[in-house]
Design brief:
binds uridine-5'-diphosphate-glucuronic acid; 474 residues; six-stranded parallel beta sheet; eight-stranded mixed beta sheet; 43% helix; alpha/beta
Length: 474
C-alpha cells in the first residue's frame, strides 16, 4: 500500500521504517529541515537500537523516501498516518501540532484515502478531530475520508521490535461509516502476527492511556512495597520474584528504585490528573502514583545524605543520566532531578553516561554538574557512587578495582542493578531500594535539615514520611 507518515519523531520514524518491512511504499513527511537533511544523508536523527539497520534497508529497497512537500506525498497516499508529538515538554498536552498537521494534510488527501492518527491524544480532544477533518474536506469541496486512530505501544530502546512484533494492534474508529478505514488498516497490518482490536476511538485512546497509567501504577506500587520491605526486614527482589509466579500479577514493571521517567509515563500520569481535575473528577490513585514516584527521587538524595553523613563538600559520582538504558533520552530523567538536588545540598557532583550527547545535554540542563567521558573518571576520588540508570556496563564493572579508585565506600544503587553480596564483598557500604543488606547499619536522622527538591514542596512531605519508614535501614 502507499502510506504517508506525517512527523518523523520516535513514533513516526520507527513506524515509517517498520511499515516498509511489510512491503508498503512509505513516504515520510517532515517539516524539520535539519531532520530531513540528516535522513537524506543516511543518518538516523535519533538513537534507537535497530533503527539504523531498518532505515538502511528501507532506503536500499527504495520503499522509504522523505519529503517536506505535502503535494508530493499526500495526494498519492492510500493511508495517511499522523504521528506528530502531542506533549508540550513540560507536563502538558499540546494539540496544536495535530491541528496544524490536519490543516496541512486533510485537504490534500485523495477521496479514497484513509486518515489515521497514531499520536497519543488527550481523551477530551478526540471528538474534535472528526469535526475538524470533515470541515477541512468541506472547505475544499472534497468528500469526507474515514478517520481512525491507531495508538502505539512502543517503548524507547525496543521500539523496533515492539513495532514489528506487537502484542496487539489497536484500531480506533472515529468516523468510518462503511468500514473502508478499518479494512485499509487491517491490510496495513496484514502480515502482523498479533490480535487486531477494532474499538471506538474513545476506547482505543483509553486503552493506550490506561496501559501507561497501569505500568506507572505497578512501578509506584513496587516502590511502596520496597519501603514496606525495608521497614519489615524483607527483600523486595525476593518478594516480587515470589509474587511473579501468580499469573494474575506477573513480574514485569515491578522493579523498585528511583522510579519512572521519560516522556510518556510521568507526563501521562500528570496530564491525566490535570485534565481530570479540570473536569471535576478525582483521581486519588493516580495522585498517589505520581507522589510515590517523585518521592523516590527525594528518597535517593536523602539516603545518600544519610550514608555520607551530609552532602556538603562530598564528591558524588552519578552513573547514568538517561531515563533508562538503551536510549539517549533525558526527558524527565530522575537523574537530572537528583543531580540538581545533590548540587543544591552542597555536593560536588560528577556524572557519566555511556551516551555522549546525553552527557553534553545534561551538563547544559543542570548548572554545576560536571560530566566526564569515562566511568573511571567519574568514580576517581568519589566519596560515593550513585547508580541512576542500569546500563549493563555498570553492573559489569570490576567493582574490586573501583574500590581502590574511590575515596569513599558508599554505593547507592537507585535501580537495584548491582549484587549486594558482591558489592559488600568488594568492601562497599552498599544500599539499594527495598533490599535487605544484612551488615548495613542504621543511621541517625537527627540534626539533618529536611531535603527539599526541585520537584516541589509536596516531595519533602513524602520524603520525610518515607524516610521515617526507612529510618531503621540502609
Ligand atoms: C512507555 C511504555 O512502556 C510503552 O508501552 C509506551 O508505548 C510508551 O511509554 C509511550 O507511551 O510511547 P517508555 O517511556 O519508552 O515506554 O519507557 P518504559 O520502558 O515504560 O520505562 C519508563 C520508566 O519506568 C523508565 O524510567 C524505567 O526506568 C522505569 N521503570 C520501568 C521502573 O522504574 N521500574 C520498572 O520495573 C520498569
Amino acid at each position: 500500500m502507499r502510506i504517508t507518515v506525517v512527523g518523523l519523531g520516535y513514533v513516526g520514524l520507527v513506524s515509517a521504517a517498520g511499515l516498509t518491512t511489510w512491503n508498503h511504499d512509505v513516504v515520510g513527511l517532515e517539516v524539520d529541515r535539519t531532520r530531513l537533511d540528516a535522513l537524506a544523508r543516511g543518518e538516523t536523527p535519533l538513537f534507537e537500537p535497530g533503527l539504523d539497520g531498518l532505515l538502511e534497508e528501507a532506503t536500499r529497497t527504495g520503499r522509504l523516501r522523505y519529503t517536506d512537500s505535502v503535494e508530493s506525498s499526500v495526494p498519492q497516499a492510500q493511508v495517511v498516518i499522523i504521528a506528530v508529538g502531542t506533549h508540550d515538554g513540560s507536563g502538558g498536552w499540546q494539540t496544536e501540532t495535530i491541528r496544524a498537521a490536519l490543516q496541512a494534510i486533510v485537504p490534500a488527501m485523495a477521496p479514497d484515502a484513509v486518515l489515521t492518527i497514531r499520536s497519543t491524544l488527550p481523551p477530551e480532544f478526540v471528538p474534535e478531530i472528526v469535526g475538524l477533518a470533515h470541515r477541512l474536506r468541506e472547505e475544499v469541496g472534497a468528500e469526507r475520508v474515514p478517520v481512525l486512530t491507531n495508538p502505539e505501544f512502543t517503548r524507547e530502546s525496543t521500539a523496533v521490535a515492539d513495532f514489528l512484533q506487537p502484542d496487539r494492534v489497536v484500531i480506533g474508529i472515529l468516523d468510518d461509516p462503511v468500514g473502508r478505514g478499518v479494512r485499509a488498516l487491517k491490510r496495513v497490518y496484514r502480515l502482523v502476527d498479533a490480535p487486531i482490536l477494532v474499538l471506538p476511538a474513545a476506547d482505543a485512546g483509553m486503552a493506550k492511556l490506561g496501559a501507561n497509567l497501569f505500568l506507572a501504577t505497578k512501578i509506584s506500587f513496587a516502590n511502596e512495597l520496597a519501603t514496606l520491605c525495608e521497614a519489615f526486614g524483607a527483600d523486595v527482589d525476593a518478594v516480587v520474584h515470589a509474587m511473579s509466579f501468580d499469573p494474575r500479577i506477573g513480574g514485569s514493571f515491578l522493579r523498585a528504585g528511583i522510579g519512572f521517567g521519560g516522556s510518556c509515563l510521568p507526563n501521562q500520569v500528570a496530564m491525566t490528573i490535570r485534565s481530570s481535575r479540570e473536569a471535576g473528577l478525582p483521581t486519588p490513585l493516580l495522585g498517589a502514583v505520581d507522589g510515590v514516584n517523585r518521592g523516590q527521587r527525594v528518597r535517593f538524595v536523602d539516603r545518600m545524605s544519610r550514608m555520607l553523613d551530609g552532602l556538603a563538600g562530598r564528591r558524588v559520582a552519578l552513573l547514568g543520566l538517561t531515563f533508562k538504558p538503551g536510549t539517549d533520552d533525558l526527558r524527565d530523567a530522575p537523574a537530572l532531578t537528583i543531580a540538581r538536588d545533590l548540587i543544591d545540598l552542597g555536593a560536588d557532583v560528577v556524572a557519566y553516561d555511556p551516551m555522549p550527547n546525553a552527557r553534553v545535554r545534561a551538563a547544559a540542563l543542570v548548572p554545576g554538574l560536571q560530566v566526564v567521558a569515562s566511568v573511571q573518571a567519574a568514580l576517581a576520588d568519589a566519596d560515593a557512587a550513585g547508580l541512576l540508570t542500569e546500563w549493563p556496563e555498570f553492573a559489569a564493572l570490576d567493582w574490586g578495582s573501583v574500590r581502590s579508585l574511590m575515596r569513599g565506600t558508599v554505593v547507592l544503587d537507585g535501580r537495584n542493578a548491582l549484587s549486594p553480596d558482591a558489592m559488600q564483598a568488594a568492601g562497599f557500604d552498599y544500599a539499594g531500594f527495598g533490599r535487605r543488606i544484612p551488615a548495613a547499619e542504621p543511621r541517625s536522622l537527627a540534626g539533618r535539615p529536611a531535603i527539599t527538591s526541585h520537584d516541589g514542596d509536596v516531595l519533602s512531605e513524602i520524603a520525610s514520611a518515607a524516610t521515617g519508614a526507612a529510618a531503621g535501614k540502609s
